[in-house]
């Protein structure tokens, strides 16, 4: 999935906190607990502090007030994104936000950019302490995406995903799908109503939490459909779409439950099954239309 060598990267959309006062990872995260934390952390609006407190010990957070940009100084063009992972993330962020800026404008609205915070180990977020163990998440309180690049290794080694650049793109685009939900009021509807109706279950295949995650997957697919239109990517191949679909399947509730507890309990799902997540991503990619990512009873 080559980037356009001549495209200009905007590193101001990424806050690079790597190497700044790093702490340690959460105690006791190994094994099943680590997998559960990673799964739950993908859920929209989660409070990382609450998750880290489950272990009884939170990591020391990164400190410092100024954004460190030296690590991204070499991320100038698409050619750099083709050779460096961190520059590639900058390129994805730029492309995703360029698309949503144009899409919001087309609808007569204004898109508010959200920064991606790159960190290693731990850093502070308005939602609590972001840690490597928690995995990537979107924080509505400060409208930022938090990402430790080590998660992509976890995606392969713990979740069994095949990996690849477009698997990374899917993860980033999914989190920005949550940002779009935040800007359009879907998150408020979720938190205020706890579902589309009073009888909506808190968990399970048809729950509000699952529908939110599936919509974010669908919105990620919508961006993928238009990725080359933004000018940052030159082509999105079938093999690359397969990478994103494989990553979506890897973080399905049923797959993780089967690996961690040996059986599947659909009534406790919070993100959706592998099949649901793949289908949502595929729907968005095939239509390229945000309106196709509707949630029952809620504004798309």
Can you describe this structure?
The radius of gyration is 18 Å and the shape is globular. The relative contact order is 0.15. The protein is built from eleven helices and six strands. It has helices at residues 32-41, 48-53, 78-81, 85-106, 151-157, 165-183, 186-193, 208-226, 238-250, 253-261, 274-287, and strands spanning 14-16, 115-118, 122-125, 128-131, 137-139, 144-147. The protein has one domain (11-292). It starts with 13 loop residues before the first strand and ends in a 13-residue tail after the last helix. The protein is of the alpha/beta class and 300 residues long. 44% of the residues lie in helices and 7% in strands.
Rounded to the nearest angstrom, the radius of gyration is 18 Å
Strand content: 5-15%
As residue ranges, the low-confidence spans are: 22-69
Please tally the β strands and state the result.
6
Oligomeric state of this protein: single chain
Taking the sheet with the most strands, its summary is: 4 strands, mixed
Tell me the strand order in the biggest sheet.
1-2-6-5
Query: How many individual helices?
Result: 11
When the domains are counted, the total is: 1
Element order: H for helix, E for strand = EHHHHEEEEEHHHHHHH
Residue share in helices?
Answer: 40-55%
Task: List the topology elements.
Blueprint: E1 14-16, H1 32-41, H2 48-53, H3 78-81, H4 85-106, E2 115-118, E3 122-125, E4 128-131, E5 137-139, E6 144-147, H5 151-157, H6 165-183, H7 186-193, H8 208-226, H9 238-250, H10 253-261, H11 274-287
Parallel strand pairs: 1-2, 2-6
Antiparallel strand pairs: 3-4, 5-6
Helix pairs in contact: 1-10, 4-6, 6-8, 6-9, 8-11, 9-11
């Amino acid at each position: 999935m080559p980037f356009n060598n001549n495209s200009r990267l905007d590193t101001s959309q990424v806050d690079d906190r790597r190497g700044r006062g790093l702490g340690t990872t959460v105690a006791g995260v190994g094994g099943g607990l680590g997998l559960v934390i990673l799964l739950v952390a993908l859920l929209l609006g989660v409070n990382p502090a609450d998750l880290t407190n489950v272990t009884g010990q939170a990591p020391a957070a990164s400190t410092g007030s100024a954004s460190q940009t030296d690590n991204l100084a070499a991320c100038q063009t698409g050619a750099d994104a083709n050779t460096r992972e961190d520059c590639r993330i900058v390129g994805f962020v730029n492309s995703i936000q360029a698309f949503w800026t144009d899409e919001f404008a087309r609808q007569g609205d204004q898109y508010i950019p959200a920064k991606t915070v790159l960190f290693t180990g731990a850093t502070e977020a308005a939602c609590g302490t972001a840690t490597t163990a928690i995995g990537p998440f979107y924080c509505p309180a400060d409208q930022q995406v938090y990402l430790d690049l080590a998660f992509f290794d976890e995606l392969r080694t713990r979740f069994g995903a095949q990996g690849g650049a477009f698997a990374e793109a899917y993860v980033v685009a999914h989190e920005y799908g949550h940002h779009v939900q935040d800007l359009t009021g879907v998150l408020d509807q979720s938190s205020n109503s706890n579902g589309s109706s009073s009888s909506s279950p808190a968990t399970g295949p048809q729950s509000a939490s699952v529908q939110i995650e599936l919509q974010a997957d669908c919105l990620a697919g919508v961006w993928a459909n238009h990725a080359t239109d933004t000018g940052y990517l030159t082509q999105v191949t079938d093999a690359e779409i397969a990478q994103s679909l494989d990553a979506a399947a890897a973080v399905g509730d049923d797959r993780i439950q089967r690996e961690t507890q040996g059986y599947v309990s659909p009534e406790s799902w919070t993100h959706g099954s592998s099949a649901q997540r793949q289908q949502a991503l595929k729907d968005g990619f095939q239509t390229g239309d945000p309106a196709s990512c509707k949630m029952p009873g809620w504004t798309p």
